[in-house]
Amino acid sequence: MNSYEVEIKSLLGAKENADLLLEKLKADPSFVAHGEHKQLNHYFIGGDLTRLYENAEMHIAEDKRDVFKQLCYDAKEFSVRTRKADEKVILVIKASVDDTTSSNGTARLEFESEVNMSLEELDKILIESGFSYQAKWSRERQEYTYKGMNVSIDKNAGYGYLAEFEKISDDASRVEGIKDEIRNAMSEIGLMELPQDRLARMFEYYNNNWEDYYGTDKVFNIE
């Protein structure tokens, strides 16, 4: 069964804005803190999903192979990345289901599978499948539950602090309604959605300059 990730971002910038958001989240009785972890995310371009499936199949969780295989046929635009979250190594594929991008869109088909290998070994499989590095990203993530949605507050190399509000659904017809639900919740606590065109400019700038930011606390500002 396909999972649809509905996610809306808000650029916080400075740490004091992130701290203020956290206080607002805590005021809700449904608030739950899930801890924090560090991530490395390696984004790839090019490549062939079918070839990647053939090369990675034996390393993918058996109950997720059919979903991966179906993506090979259904995905028209997709984003492939590898992730190390603390000690877990994960293959991530996101395919767009609306008019936003597969890299940063508000609604996407999502596939994730933990693999029993190093990040470098997984990267090698992607490169052998015709992919090449687009950029490498680093961040520190704090995760919460708020009003039935997943909220993360990230400290990203390049971007500074960023909030992501997310809900997952297996029903494509609910995507637009979930977007409205998330936007309403964000508005209630005074958060502005990061526009997709600005996010695209930020993403492009980072991709072109990632070696200056990866693994650092350096931040840029792109309007």
Architecture overview:
This protein has 223 residues and is α+β, with helices and mostly antiparallel strands. It has one domain (4-212): Hypothetical Protein Pfu-838710-001. It has six helices and eight strands. It has helices spanning 15-26, 49-56, 65-74, 119-128, 175-188, 196-209, and strands spanning 4-13, 32-46, 78-85, 88-96, 107-115, 131-146, 149-156, 160-169. The protein has an eight-stranded antiparallel barrel with strand order 1-5-4-3-2-6-7-8, surrounded by five helices. Strand 6 and strand 7 form a beta hairpin. The chain is globular and about 45 Å long.
Secondary structure topology:
Layout: E1 4-13, H1 15-26, E2 32-46, H2 49-56, H3 65-74, E3 78-85, E4 88-96, E5 107-115, H4 119-128, E6 131-146, E7 149-156, E8 160-169, H5 175-188, H6 196-209
Antiparallel strand pairs: 1-5, 1-8, 2-3, 2-6, 3-4, 4-5, 6-7, 7-8
